[in-house]
Amino acid sequence: MATAASASPAAAFGAKTRRPGPSPSPSPASAFARPSPRASAAGRLHASLHLGGASATGSSIVSNASGIHLAAPVLAPLAVPKMTGAVGAHKNVLLFHCEEMRELAEQVVARNDDIELRSISWRTFADGFPNLFISNAHTIRGRHVAFLASFSSPSVIFEQLSIIYALPKLFISSFTLILPFFPTGTSERMEDEGDVATAFTLARILSNIPISRGGPSSLVIFDIHALQERFYFGDSVLPCFESGIPLLKSRLQELPDSDNITIAFPDDGAWKRFYKQLQHFPMVVCNKVREGEQRIVRIKEGDPRGRHVVIVDDLVQSGGTLIECQKVLAEHGAAKVSAYVTHGIFPNKSWEKFQPDNGEGPGHGLSHFWITDSCPLTVNAVKDRQPFEILSLAGPIASALQI
Q: Which residues belong to any copy of the Ribose-phosphate pyrophosphokinase N-terminal domain (predicted)?
């Protein structure tokens, strides 16, 4: 029995038999005869129907010039799958946090209705080791989950790592760790054999966060101190490096003398980090020179005369370099001097060194000292003290959670 596959194309479509007659001699142009466009379209349609390229929901009989009767399908539009993470889509994120970051986490949630705050019980056993509990853990399956961390001291890192390693294993859709301040490596110098790079150690630990159902975990860090540290992370984590500089730029636009701002960098390292984001401002670059046994800040290039000069760096610890920079800018005629750092660390209450100018000029103090809330313990210490002002990372974090 002949099958449909072995039948001729004409028979397959029910073609009529033509009467025999003399065959005309082929002309040179028709020596290699080609099928008519209509016949080719019919063949492609036939193949498309068999291969599932279209869906026929109905048909009608039509006849072409060659007498072939075709069943013209009524084509229904193909269903297009909805793409996760498409442009304009919003992720519903469950945000956990350590105790230090409670206030910032609440601000993040207030910025975006698609983020929901969740809690963890931070308890300890009698021997001092963590006794942790993730509330309603069964309800986070299949959800996007984030954790807002603060590694403000070595004593709080272990308990948070325990949570960070546990959350991705709860069958969640994706996991994001927000660590605004990457703390290690701020003072490390690899100069002698035996020096240990603790920043590399922490990066390795974070690079081994378990994967979730959606794949590798994401890691959000703001203004990492040493640029080479971004290469410390392995391929099992997706680091996302953000900056607090857009917060500063927005704040500077609100100042009454916003058209008289000059940016100063205390050293070449700060210039390398930030000059591209601030290149539309006039700039002053300072550096440290050695005089005898002292290292003194000097202006390397730029003119601060008559300008409101804002010193920009990624972090401050003792504050000695910022204060020396403030003095040299005042000596060279700056009208005002302010400062910005993303991470205000201030060990041993070193923030006490910074005084407001009280309108008496930059020789007496700073007009403004802006820091972000990446280091919550510092925020609690200086939030009501002049010249400090807090620029919140809540908005940038909320936006990063939608990536």
A: 94-207
Strand partners, 115: 93
Residue 344 contacts residue 373 (beta carbons within 8 Å): no
The residues, any chain, with a CB within 8 Å of residue 278's CB and separated by 6 or more, are 245, 249, 263, 312
- Using alpha carbons, select from 287, 290, 286 the residue that is nearest to residue 304: 286
Neighbours of 261 (CB within 10 A): 19
* CA distance to 221, 307, 357, 384, 385, per residue, from 390 (Å): 18, 23, 18, 10, 11
Residues of the chain within CATH 3.40.50.2020 domain(s) are 93-242, 245-372
The CA distance from 190 to 176, in Å, is 31
Spatial separation of the C-alpha atoms in residues 115 and 186, rounded to whole Å: 32
Two tokens, residue 297: 């800040």
Q: Does domain 93-242 have CATH number 3.30.200.20?
A: no
Contact 104, 373 (CB under 8 A): yes
Task: Per-residue pLDDT tens, the chain, 403 aa: give them.
Answer: 444 444 444 444 444 444 445 544 444 444 434 444 444 444 444 444 444 444 444 444 554 555 555 555 554 444 433 334 444 568 999 999 999 999 999 999 999 999 999 999 999 999 999 999 999 999 999 999 999 999 999 999 999 999 999 999 999 999 999 999 999 766 556 667 888 888 889 999 999 999 999 999 999 999 998 767 778 899 999 999 999 999 999 999 999 999 999 999 999 999 999 999 999 999 999 998 877 777 789 999 999 999 999 999 999 999 999 999 999 999 999 999 999 999 999 999 999 999 999 999 999 999 999 999 999 999 999 999 999 999 999 999 999 999 8
H or E, element range at 328: helix 320-331
| Listed residue (374, 388, 403) closest to 103, CA to CA | 374
- Alpha helices, DSSP H only, in 130-279? 154-166, 198-207, 245-253, 268-274
Distance, CA of 254 to CA of 251 (rounded, Å):
5
Q: 56 forms bridges with which residues in the sheet?
A: 75
245-372: in CATH 3.40.50.2020: yes
Q: Name the token pair of 186.
A: 């701020």
